[in-house]
Amino acid sequence: MWKCPKCERLFKNTNQVHMCTRKDIGELFLEKPDELVLAYDDLVQHIKQWKPFSQGASVHSIIVTSKKAWLIIKPMKKELDVKFYTDQPIASDRIKKITEYRNKFAHHIRISDPVQVDQEIFALLREGFDYSIRE
Question: Which domain holds residue 66?
Answer without folding.
Answer: 21-134
